[in-house]
Fold each of these.
Amino acid sequence: MKSKPKKYQLIIIVFTLIIVLLSLTFHSVKRSSETGIFKKLVLEIAAPLMDVINTSFEELTKGWKRYIFLVGLEEENRQLKKKNILLTGQLIQYQEGYLEGIRLQKLLKLKENLNYSTITAMVVGRNKLSGFQTILINKGTAHNLRIGLPVAADQGVIGRITEASWHVSKILLLTDENSKIDALVQRTRTPGILHGSGFISHLKYVPKTDDVRVGDAVISSGMGGVFPKGLLLGFVKSVDKRDAALFQKVEVTPSVDVARIEEVLVFLPDNDDKK
């Protein structure tokens, strides 16, 4: 702890001696033009010290300029980062708007091709605890919605309304175990009941004698009075006729990825106007 004060004292003494020597040198030069022994000694000692001082001052000046430059560069870099974050945010917003426009355009195209009154709604919630088996939309009884109305996306059927408040409705997805939809194999017109089984569905009560193949489209039959006829439900994933039972096992992959859906169409009763 005592070495630091001694070090500073030595620096102060050396600096003071330099100042004194420089003062004597300039004072001697002013008083006489002759160069005596004393003057020569002073000059010999002062010259290197002056060189060191000048060099140190130049380095200090350069260091200060570099510091100022780096401070300015850091501030400029900070501003550029802020601008980059702002532009990135704007780009994401533009992309979201563009993608939303594409999705809504697909829904509009589906709406135009249907002979039913429909209303567009946004998905505002998902029941994650049950594996996305129900979703919430931002329309309800105030928009003429009611329990039992079918819901679809541009890729096909999603499910049906099971609960409705004034401005929110709950949709039971076709993959839910409580979901049962009268269906047809589009290619052969083979009828069956599409049962939800989690993230996949099963087409039940299909006789083993009926021709069902992997890749066949499964559509709504229109029976039961809930879903209009001809809406896409999914595609046959697998067919198993090995069981001794009367019916074959048919797995169906839903045509709609319900975990990614954001906008839907709700089919309105015939006496409601299109919206």
Note: The first strand starts at residue 118 and ends at 126.
Amino acid sequence: MNTITKLVVLISLCLITGTSHAQDTLQKTKSQLKIESLQEYKEVITQEEKAFLKTEVETINQRLENKEITQVEAEVLKQEMAKKRALNIENRIAIIDSQIELITRNPGYYPSTQSPENEVIISIGKKKGLYIKSKNEPPKYDIRTSNQLLFAIGFNNTIIDGESLDDSPYQLGGSGFVELGWLWKTRLLKNSNFVRVNYGLSFQWNKLSIKDNQYFVANGDETTLETFHLNLKKSKFRTTSLVVPVHFEFGPSKLLGFNDRIRYQTHKQFKIGLGGFAGVNLATKQKLKYKENGNNQKDKFKSDYNTTNLVYGVSGYIGVGDFSIYAKYNLNDLFKDQAIAQNNVSLGLRWDFQ
């Protein structure tokens, strides 16, 4: 019994000693990791302040080129910026050195200001860790390209050779289109935002709601409208396309000037865009709803229905700010190699969310 007691005491002492040693090692590892991270961050500070200075000098040169300041004023501003950035480096590194000294004297102490801005440290096992720092860049003096979300919705129909819209086999109210895309807008002139070009990628959904109890039938290479054998509640035909829209946009804008940048603002400004689109047809679907033997039926057919693979056309918009009236016309035939050509035409509302 005495032997067992001694053995239990010995094991307990070993566990306590091992745990204490592990905690000391872990604490030491954390402290070392933090100190190494701060040492590395001193170099980051230097590079960051140099990047700020480079951008500020470019801004001063741009102002000089635009004749906003004289050569003498530009040199004075450059010297002031250089002095400011040098002092920033000196002060920020002094703060880091103070943090390193504090952690060295107190391994378990981590001041609230210890972490470099936007810093993430990940350690795995005994590895030193992974240091990640997001970029903190100064604003650009002038941004010529911006991006925006495109959303448009409205009415859709087709122009058929020899027929007017009043004689169209498609409902005017039930046929529509939706467009969703991502665009870039680039200013074409150096010192004016009057002319811009919009370009990007967008999805177009064109839907036709067929009248008079008809639906599309593909007979070989020919697609025709035929009468359904039952009373149709709904007969809809939809194409999905991926296109590249390009528009030249014209209109005034407001110039906003700041100390370190300029911006052209088109908010609440008149605009008009003229251009077109080109792309590919991704999918074609027809949906029929009807009642058979007292039961509601819904059929969905996915087929090409001899629709044109390549889609292209002209489009334009006119509006104010983000909102505009939007029109587009497909130059390609809806169906290829048909006796009577018909082309999609759309009119609706468009929003360009910047």
Note: The first strand starts at residue 119 and ends at 122.
